């Protein structure tokens, strides 16, 4: 009988690719499972250019990369608003190719190594039909936060109760129809698409569809841990009995690598931008817990006016900062010589700017004392794992919910959503890095311990990964 063979297909952007590759590597460490990782051609090229991923995965004989077009021209951006086109491209172009691959092609039931389980991003509704057609189990991996995904699934309920579209302009009104979040979530904390004035908005329609397909999978995988999102995971269990919360994946993987390999400090970077390591030398020269790390991830963008507000806020706070200014992340900024001279001068004194950083390593550096983040789920988890408090400036999708949870539920930072004003930035930076520094760092330590416990032997994520691997092993066609 053929070995279990899982086909992993992420949404081709940095965050999902990063954590799905980490899950793939964890499967490889468990052995006895074949793993095929299906990347878009665009992502694969960039991964090969920027990381040692090819060498790293060579040591796993049961692992294989395959590629597929994502439907967009090579020079088309895949960030900001373009992510919507990317999802459409995958549906129109990649999905028929994937169907062909698993029905009659290279990975079909008649092939040498047939796929026995599809493990795909939760956004891909088309996978339900493919899995049914071939007769193989489907697992969805939703790489956004479960707390945000839960609000997505409650969108039909919110519509039925007349809570969305919003009536009136009061974004601070509490939302009543998301079970488990009563008294916590305000309108402004719902995913950004809930602000659309009418229900014909394509994103809302997609989200309603997502809620229907996601519960048809045999199981749902999340990059989270019980100690962080236990109550929300319980809500999911009412819809889908097989929930696997195996995160935080990056430390789960590091932990497994150090127990199974002789070299404990292996790089696990899956960056699609070249990391500028010079910032690590700069961090080495800064005092303990003195630096604010600033990054808005791989997709979010800001206007030039917002860039300047944040920049003045940082400089006026007199805090040291390390800022990732990703190429293309500032709309309308032609050249950095547009920047007022006083900002450049103060930055030379107290700051460091790079185009892409080794973020996991940066957050683990002793000189980091805070993180001004867009609250992408990977960044949020990476910060929690290092006990680094956050100032949250969410951009879209799950980030509005994540930032509310960081501030209000986990008490690990300040939520700056919907504001971009230099005086507020300065005030929040001072509050986090000076006034409430000890309180936040103490809370950070508690959260970090919970995260580490979950991936230690016997911890909740450790056990869920074992259960997931066992269930995949039992899947046969
Ligand atoms: N990242 C990085 N270097 C940077 C900025 C980001 O390695 O300079 C990584 C970060 O560690 C995280 C990912 O990019 O794993 C961003 O994912 P996230 O879910 O936070 O946000 P997204 O980019 O999907 O909006």
TrEMBL record:
Family that this chain belongs to: Belongs to the UDP-glycosyltransferase family.
- Which domain of life does the protein's organism represent? Eukaryota
Q: Which UniProt keywords apply?
A: Glycosyltransferase, Transferase
Q: Name one GO molecular function term.
A: 7-deoxyloganetic acid glucosyltransferase activity
Species assigned in the record: Nicotiana attenuata
The EC designation for this entry is 2.4.1.-
> What does UniProt list as this organism's lineage?
Eukaryota, Viridiplantae, Streptophyta, Embryophyta, Tracheophyta
Q: Which gene is transcribed and translated to give this protein?
A: UGT85A7_0
> Reaction catalysed by this chain?
7-deoxyloganetate + UDP-alpha-D-glucose = 7-deoxyloganate + UDP + H(+)
Q: Which PANTHER family match?
A: GLUCOSYL/GLUCURONOSYL TRANSFERASES (PTHR11926), GLYCOSYLTRANSFERASE (PTHR11926:SF1392)
What is the name of the protein in this document? Glycosyltransferase
SUPFAM superfamilies assigned: UDP-Glycosyltransferase/glycogen phosphorylase (SSF53756)
InterPro entries assigned to the protein according to its UniProt record, in alphabetical order: UDP_glucos_trans, UDP_glycos_trans_CS
Keyword Oxidoreductase belongs to the record: no
The top EC class, named as a word, is transferase
């Amino acid at each position: 009988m053929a070995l279990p063979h899982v086909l992993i297909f992420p949404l081709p952007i940095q965050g999902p690719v990063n954590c799905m590759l980490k899950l793939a590597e964890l499967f490889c460490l468990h052995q006895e499972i074949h793993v095929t990782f299906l990347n878009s051609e665009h992502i694969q090229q960039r991964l090969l250019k920027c990381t040692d991923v090819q060498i790293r995965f060579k040591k796993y004989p049961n692992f294989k990369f395959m590629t597929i077009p994502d439907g967009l021209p090579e020079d088309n951006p895949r960030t900001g608003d373009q992510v919507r086109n990317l999802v459409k491209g995958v549906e129109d172009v990649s999905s028929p190719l994937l169907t062909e691959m698993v029905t009659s092609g290279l990975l079909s039931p008649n092939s040498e190594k047939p796929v026995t389980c599809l493990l795909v991003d939760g956004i891909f509704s088309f996978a339900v039909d493919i899995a049914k057609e071939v007769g193989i189990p489907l697992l969805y991996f939703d790489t956004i936060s479960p707390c945000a995904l839960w609000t997505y699934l409650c969108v039909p309920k919110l519509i039925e109760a007349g809570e969305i579209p919003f009536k009136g302009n009061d974004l601070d009104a509490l939302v009543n129809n998301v079970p488990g979040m009563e008294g916590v979530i305000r309108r402004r904390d719902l995913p950004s698409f809930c602000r659309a004035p009418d229900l014909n908005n394509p994103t809302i329609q997609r989200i309603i569809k997502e809620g229907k397909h996601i519960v048809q999978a045999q199981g749902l995988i999340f990059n989270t841990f019980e100690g962080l999102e236990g109550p929300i995971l319980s809500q999911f269990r009412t819809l889908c009995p097989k929930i696997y919360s195996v995160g935080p994946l990056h430390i789960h993987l590091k932990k497994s690598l150090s127990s199974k390999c002789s070299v404990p400090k292996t790089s696990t970077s899956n960056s699609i931008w070249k990391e500028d390591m010079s910032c690590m030398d700069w961090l080495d020269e800064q005092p303990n817990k003195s630096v604010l790390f600033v990054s808005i991830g791989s997709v979010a963008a800001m206007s030039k006016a917002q860039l300047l507000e944040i920049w003045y806020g940082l400089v006026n706070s007199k805090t040291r900062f390390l800022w990732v200014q990703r190429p293309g992340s500032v709309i309308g900024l032609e050249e950095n010589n547009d920047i007022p001279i006083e900002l450049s001068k103060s930055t030379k004194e107290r700051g460091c700017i790079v185009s892409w950083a080794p973020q996991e390593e940066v957050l683990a550096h002793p000189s980091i004392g805070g993180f001004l983040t867009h609250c992408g789920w990977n960044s949020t988890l990476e910060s929690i794992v290092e006990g680094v408090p956050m100032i949250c400036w969410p951009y879209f999708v799950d980030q509005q919910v994540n930032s509310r949870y960081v501030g209000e539920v986990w008490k690990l930072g300040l939520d700056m959503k919907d504001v971009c004003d230099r005086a507020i930035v300065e005030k929040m930076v001072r509050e986090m890095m000076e006034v409430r520094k000890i309180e936040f760092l103490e809370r950070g330590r508690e959260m970090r311990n919970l995260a580490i416990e979950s991936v230690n032997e016997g911890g909740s994520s450790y056990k869920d990964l074992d259960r997931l691997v066992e269930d995949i092993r039992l899947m046969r066609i």
